[in-house]
Amino acid sequence: MRRVVLAAAFLTAWAPAEECLVVEGERIRAGELARLRPLFAALDPALELGYAPAPGIRRVLAPAELARLARRHGLIEASVDAVCVERAVVRLAEADLVEAMRRSLGEEARIEIVDYARYPVPGGAIEFPLAGLAGPPAQPGGTVLWRGRVRMASGRTAPVWARVRVRVERRALVARRDLAPGRPVEAGDVEERLVEVFPRAVPEALRAAEVVGARPRRRIRAGEVVTGEALWLAPEVKRGDAVEVEVRSAGARLVLEARAETPGRRGDAVLVRNPATGRRFRAVVEGPGQLAVDLSEQGAVR
Hints:
Blueprint: H1 2-14, E1 21-23, E2 27-29, H2 30-33, E3 48-51, E4 58-61, H3 63-72, E5 83-87, E6 89-90, H4 94-105, E7 109-116, E8 121-122, E9 125-127, E10 144-151, E11 157-175, E12 190-197, H5 208-211, E13 215-216, E14 231-232, E15 242-249, E16 252-260, E17 269-273, E18 280-287, E19 290-294, H6 295-298
Parallel strand pairs: 1-5, 15-19
Antiparallel strand pairs: 2-3, 4-5, 6-8, 7-11, 9-10, 10-11, 11-12, 13-14, 15-16, 16-17, 17-18, 18-19
């Protein structure tokens, strides 16, 4: 019986007041606490008295804890009733999520939100970085998870998420008819046009002139976006080609004629031979017949 009485007394002492103090930040400040407990109005309003609870959670400051705070800061000890504290929170709005996603995409996009986090979050700037976007979807028109965050004024963040369908408009190379594997692509087989694709779904923007003569690695269906991964692309520099090499060194520029010893495409390092000396060196392909070499990276060209 005594235990029941003690338990009832404990619950009564910790029972929150009917009105709960709502704080904006991660700390409880004296000015905020003074709104419900005027004793603390004598302190600097910006003085931090303790941590605020996590969003969606209530914390109860018991009379004994409030009395200790008062004594610590030189206030006249007085009886202070318990007070509950909670963080100011908001519910995510679909329109705000879409706006944040458009900022990350940096282009016009079709965004359909199928579901999103319904729990309360602290106020702040909503961010959906592209790094948090999963995908592409397993099936055309499928949904993917996009992980985002709310960035608070303190710089700390709270996680949020949304399940979305998202497409962006991009100029890409598209097959006009079915392309059989191994059969060289002809000029009329492809065309450049605006298409809707998943963000980052076209890693390499190809031009029609680049794929003529290339052989598909697999069947490419009519209307499908043609990517470099789907083709055996012809090298932009072939073995034996006469090429122009731009030699760069500390702001100086020298152009010389050379002959390619190995094939490659843009960005590849190939071997070339200096016809004047017979020496070989490496240069980077920058386009058809155009190479470059940086002396600061590999030494003299001889």
